[in-house]
Amino acid sequence: MLVSAWDPHEGALCTAAWSGRESGGTFVAGAPQRLDHGPDFYAPALLHSPDGRWLLWAWLWEARDEVRVGAPSAWTDEVGWAGMLSLPRQVTIDNDGALLQRPAQEVERLRRDRRIRAAGEVRAGRPVELGEIGPACDITARLDAAGGLRLVTDAAGSEYLDLVRDPMTGEVVVDRSRASLDPRAKGGSWRLPARLGPVDIRVVLDHSVAEVFTAEGQALTLRLYPVGGATWRLQATASGAAPVPYAVEAWDLRGLQVHERRPEPERAS
Fold it and tell me: What is the pLDDT of residues 14-32, one digit of tens each?
């Protein structure tokens, strides 16, 4: 059961999921769990695909200068649009009742040129330049307990999105505090559950949205608004005294083409 939490004063808050079982015509729910660990994911909807998969989409609201979701926004009025849909996600439930998510397998078909394929070690305070990427890209990375990635979007390196491991908890901390030079963009950081030790993550970027997934099936979604005007580039980062290993690949994504299927017109006899 999926629930979208709404506060009368604050507006949209988060989404939660309860897995359970049917018993005598009654749904017996287990413990609640956060469906997405980011700030901008709401109102999910499910589709049962012809091949048996459950696919999920959600509404991603803006994180501009609104005081709350749905409130007036001068910045949104300037650009002329608000909100978008997430990527389709495949959802499953494991034996313990946890809801697991990953990008639908069709997303990989959008990959085109591979921009980055790199592995090595990085030290704290000495980020490694991995290469340039486009504003719509698909990134996979193996990050050690003290490793991280930085998406740099201006020439001076002052506008960036950080993904770093917390070496104490293993969580992936996604920090957009400096992801936009426009002061109207919302900041903040959020934590994605992950185990200790090396963790495989996948980050799908599409201009103003980042969707982050762990191989264990956890997800975090947030909006960001780079205005630096430079070609985007990716760096490997680290904390602590020892060198930290990393392995990263990144592909540009081509635009999605939608083909509408119309019924064949009836032929006159």
Answer: 999 999 989 999 999 999 9
